[in-house]
Amino acid sequence: MKRAIYPGTFDPITLGHLDIIKRACKIFDEIIVAVAKNKEKKPLFSYEKRIQLAQKACKEYPKVKVIGFEGLLVDLSNELKANTIIRGLRAVSDFEYELQMGYANASLKSELDTIYLMPSLQYAFISSSIVRAILKYGGKIDHLVPKAIINDLKE
Ligand code: PNS
Asked: Does the CB atom of residue 8 touch ligand 1 within 6 A?
């Protein structure tokens, strides 16, 4: 059973995230989408809401399970017995942060591998912060987030 963890703040989950999840489904038997509490980041959406939105967005993917987590990713990987982390890479600007995080995790647990997947070019500009910025002024977000959560976000 090939299980991978896809961690993130998901504030909120976007079509870019979903594209990565679909790609991961082609490689792994089970994908655990792990929503980090990440209080330090002061997310716009509550921890519970971010989990609920991710669950709604992933409902039609049987290989995907959404959970919340607090604490270190390496501890979660031990708990779940999963030594593969999935992260999306959109542009060179993501690379430095991702490299540092990948090495930091590997320094805590050498068996942990991080696999980086590229979203389709049409989603490469999408980020949760772009979605939040547009939402703030009531702009159109339908092309940026999964259909299943559009109404929740507009509320
Ligand atoms: O979507 P994000 O905000 O880029 O995701 C960041 C996340 C959740 C992957 C990162 O903050 C994380 O792994 N948090 C758990 C705490 C941890 O393990 N930190 C050490 C690695 S930097």
From this structure: yes
- Residue to mutate, 50, 86, 101, ligand 1, most ligand atoms under 8 Å from C-beta: 101
Catalytic sites, residue numbers = 17, 41, 90, 128
Q: Are 28 and 84 in contact (CB under 8 A)?
A: yes
Give the tens place of pLDDT for each residue, 99-139: 999 999 999 999 999 999 999 999 999 999 999 999 999 99
Report pTM: 0.97
CATH classification of the domain holding 144: 3.40.50.620
Burial class of 97 by CB neighbour count within 10 A (0 to 12, 13 to 18, 19+): exposed
How many structural domains does the chain have? 1
